[in-house]
Amino acid sequence: MAAMTGAMARAAVRAAALGAARSSGTRLADSVPRAILDFGSSPIDRQLVLSAQFLLKELPVRLAHRVAELENLPYGLSSKAQVLKVRDWYVESFRELRAFPGIKNGAEEAAFSDLLRNIYRRHGLVMRPRQ
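Request: output the structure for the sequence above.
Response:
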């Protein structure tokens, strides 16, 4: 994918503004429905669908916040090629999530899980586990 302009990335952030206004908070524990937290080792299909619905709503908001943060770094860091590349990954992931249709059943949840795996792979170099 070609590098996105700052205007394109800002447009993606603005597109998430509505969702951000409705977001239940920045802390995951505060915004996760209780049924999602009570999975256990073998979740039922309904729990998976609920989790996918929650993520489909919440992840674009969080990605939009990261894009905004990357565009507002101090000391000109926002214009560095490496930062722009990461920002573009976030924008691409944001767009894919926003374009995903609603999740109402197990088949749609499975397709959403595939999308999340692809996003995770794309961001793999950014999301290194802490040692």
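The helical segments are 6-15, 17-22, 28-31, 34-37, 45-71, 81-99, 106-122.
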